[in-house]
């Protein structure tokens, strides 16, 4: 089964980013000036918009190329964001943030032990009663759906296709980006550990975090086995 819908690029558009940030702020309910860590911030879409709203934002990513773009975009937006290159396995903050966000399936790229330890490091980074918001692919939905898909960019210039194989909770993703004008193809594969909600709850409980709410999308819909996303809000206990 294939899927062709330019709306799937909404999450990378300004409108999509605004919806996501509106959701983030409505869920976290932080006060102006409070500190937020955007863990694996990419090129700073959420970090910059949160800074515009008056939050003290730190953005961490492992890829310097993304951070270079983020720094430039923050300058253009005339906002202050602290960007830092770091592997999330080396997170070393101690009760510094009112909230940590981890968006767009940016978790699950390491071993189970390493992933669990990352959650402990996130808990350490949170202030008492701090909040952790994580956005994951919904493994139950992945199991129920054919994940061989493609998206065409609204400009018509690019097509992104991907194939996902899920076995024992391990999702192997093969992506190919094709420039429709030049014919250039870029292919890259990566492996993601897709966790179920009970598995995440267990990891959280061993890290001093307690799940307070779950969502199925940035529109605030309830989480279920039929929602592509599994967005979890947890509090440091």
From TrEMBL:
Signal peptide range: none
EC number from the UniProt entry: 2.1.1.222
Entry keyword Iron: no
Key words, A-Z: Methyltransferase, Transferase, Ubiquinone
UniProt GO molecular function: 2-polyprenyl-6-hydroxyphenol methylase activity
Domain Methyltransferase: 36-130
InterPro entries according to UniProt: Methyltransf_25, SAM-dependent_MTases_sf
An annotated GO BP: methylation
The name this protein goes by in its record: Ubiquinone biosynthesis O-methyltransferase
Organism in which the protein naturally occurs: Sporomusa termitida
Name of encoding gene: ubiG_2
């Amino acid at each position: 089964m294939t899927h062709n819908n330019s709306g799937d690029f909404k999450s990378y558009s300004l409108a999509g980013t605004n919806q996501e940030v509106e959701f983030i702020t409505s869920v976290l309910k932080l006060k102006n000036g409070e500190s937020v860590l955007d863990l694996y911030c990419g090129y700073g879409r959420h970090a910059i918009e949160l800074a515009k709203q008056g939050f003290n934002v730190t953005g961490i990513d492992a890829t310097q190329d993304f951070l270079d773009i983020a720094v430039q975009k923050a300058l253009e937006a005339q906002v202050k964001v602290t960007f830092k290159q770091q592997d999330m396995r080396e997170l070393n903050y101690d009760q510094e943030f009112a909230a940590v966000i981890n968006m767009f399936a940016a978790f699950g790229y390491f071993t189970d032990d390493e992933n669990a330890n990352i959650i402990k490091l996130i808990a350490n980074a949170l202030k008492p009663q701090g909040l952790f918001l994580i956005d994951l692919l919904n493994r139950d939905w992945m199991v129920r759906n054919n994940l061989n898909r493609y998206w065409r960019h609204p400009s018509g210039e690019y097509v992104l296709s991907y194939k996902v194989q899920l076995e024992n909770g391990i999702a192997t993703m093969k992506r190919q980006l094709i420039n429709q004008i030049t014919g250039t193809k870029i292919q890259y594969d990566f492996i993601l550990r897709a966790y179920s909600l009970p598995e995440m709850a267990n990891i959280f409980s061993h890290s001093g975090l307690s799940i307070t709410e779950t969502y199925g999308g940035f529109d605030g819909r309830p989480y279920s086995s039929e929602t592509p996303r599994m967005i979890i809000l947890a509090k440091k206990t």
